[in-house]
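Incident log, structure service

09:12 report received: a user says their structure output differs between two submissions of the same chain.
09:20 pulled the input from the user's history:
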Amino acid sequence: MPRLAPGTMTDAASVVLAHEAVPSAQVVAGTPTTGHVVLDDDGTRTVGVWEMSVGAMRDVESDEVFLVLAGAATVEFEHPVAEPISLAPGSVVRFEAGTRSIWRVRQTLRKLYVAP
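09:34 re-ran on a clean worker, output below:
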């Protein structure tokens, strides 16, 4: 399991991520790709960076808190139904596990997340 050593630093805004195509069953529009890397995992929580390219996809969320580092997107909620949210650098969001969403990314979105 990756583990950041105390007192070390990683630049989450520029860490290189390998992208993969979103599975066709999840694609809503365009040809989005996603990439991620785990920065730290101590067995009780995971810290990582996730990125999605321009396009739209369906997702089922995990329990997490995240901070948007770059990009622009709207997240629509299919279940439970809620008002869409607009994401931009500095947005802090909490999702509950099982939330069904649609991500509509206008500019490649990168987030730093913390999840159990």
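09:41 both user submissions now match this output. Likely a transient worker issue. Closing.
09:42 reviewer note: The mean pLDDT is 95. The longest strand covers residues 64-79.
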